[in-house]
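haha ok so turns out i had the wrong file open the whole time. this is the CORRECT one, sorry everyone. sequence first:
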Amino acid sequence: MSEPELSYQAFLKSKDSTEVTSLIAYWTHDRGRLRAVMWHASRKEWISAPSLAAGILFDDAYTDEARSVDRATAETMARVFLHSTLPTSEELQELAEEGERMGWEFGPPRT
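then structure:
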């Protein structure tokens, strides 16, 4: 069985906007299990939140604002719009694994 591919989805402020409000990096496993790390706008950080991400990725209400992008485009969008650095693929994997170990379906608890 091959490793699931890492995909990136950008979410725009509105369907007519070019302003990115969030990015999600995600893997879909053969068994349908979603692993996702996303930019959380109010926390201003990358978090492991597969249930939160699924609610956005698979909600038809966001279809017009969603854009599939490649890694290079996601890096640029993170820098320009989110004022952040997109974690490396390895760092995204580590964040997702930590989230799974800790049971963070909606992100880590706020401190």
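The beta strands are 7-12, 20-28, 34-40, 45-48, 66-69.
again sry for the mixup
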